[in-house]
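Provenance and format

Records in this collection were gathered into a single text stream. Each protein contributes a sequence line and a token line. The two records reproduced below are adjacent in the stream.
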Amino acid sequence: MSFIARAVLVPLAISLALAARQQPTFELVWRPKADDLLAYKMRADIDSTPERFSFTVNVKNHVLKIKPNGDYDVETVIKNGHVLHGTHDDPIPDDDKPTVDTYNARGEKIASSEEKDPSGDANPGFDALDAVTDHLSPKDPVSIGGTWSTIIKANAKLKQEAAKVTYTLVSKVKENAFQTLRIEFKYRETDLEPPTTAEGYILVNQDDFSLVRFEALLKGPRFIDDPDFPKGDVTISVIRD
């Protein structure tokens, strides 16, 4: 290596190495506080035939309790639901029985009041998307450009299928009043054929890693066993209210 090349390349390499080490990392674990309230608007569009169906609801999450080990309980209430199809706009009766889910300190769902209530009819197509956010947190903090994967074990009580999710922390993004981190994901079931797949992105608040936005395209979902329920791929959007 010539003297000039050495004089330029060596400091440059050192500078790049230092810049890489100084790049901030993010834990991506929500640390809620008791009585935190988060409200969202959710829309799901099912590409069914002969009519496209859309569902819209308001979702309110209330953190009920933080336990000494970091586990926490979240109450979810769904209100103001509508089913849109053709020229029809049909209201959905409000759910008068809130769901209470328990999460561990890493944000993974470990219990749900739905386990004890068989009348709560789950919908496998949408349960797959819950799993994507429930298993978001990496084992170690990541920097922009970092990629990690999570293996989800089948859990009948929590209505989860075995699957693999790959996440990539892509960038920082301004979303309304929030400074957020954009995380792109790809989800694929591993035990069922044909598998349900999904891909999309998640925006989390850079300050506390709470959910700000979720966008996904779900392909090949299995829905409740009801001949009247529309079938097809689903585009879903959840936006902080």
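Adjacent record:
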Amino acid sequence: MLNVLRPKIANRLKQSSGAGIVALALVAVVLGLSAPPAKAQSQAGGADPAASGAGRPSSGPSRTSAASFAGESASTDARAIADWVARVKDNQGMPFIIVDKKNTKVFVFDGEANLLGATSALIGLARGDESAPGVGDKKLSSIRPNERTTAAGRFVASLGQDLSDQDVLWVDYKAALALHRVLSRNSKEARLQRMASGIANDHRITFGCIDVPVIFYDRIVHPSFAESNGVVYILPEEKSLSAVFPMASVWSKATT
């Protein structure tokens, strides 16, 4: 979670006009202090990456009626939300990401719901679908283990710049929730090794942010959000899918 004394500097956000494991990088990018995106705002309610499409667009045809996972394995919940997004155009033509916390996996789609890449990810240490009150204003050292959750919901996300000119994808700035390159500052945390583990619980280590491999962020996430905002859908692990995404549930019932 990138919530340590966020600097008061403007990022270089470009506004939108509409409202697997990969070979892990040996050197992780260490992020500095980050600034908020101008219009990022919360709208809450694994085998992987480059080998499964990272670095190149899906070769399949564009779809407007259902999401294309391009042969990538995905849970029933991830497919249900992606299909709903594609059919009702909830993403409003913007790129979108689905974070499957139960399976610690991230899927990135283009605006037409074609899969661009998928990867294993690291998520918050604690289970839970809400951000702890005021967590975004706390220093990392004061955030208790039980507060280190990755909140579920629908969020409008934007790239933001840090003081070292590094970028992150702000998911919910107020709660200091971001998706970024995996950090390896603390060797005792063994984040790169955790990323390679096939055990989901090994992926629970962060203060709440979503960590992805450096190469995946650079080849998939950054290019996808460089020209516009996007939407991030974080699936719940304790609440029901319908409780977090009620409109998706209503749509599903109406079409069955």
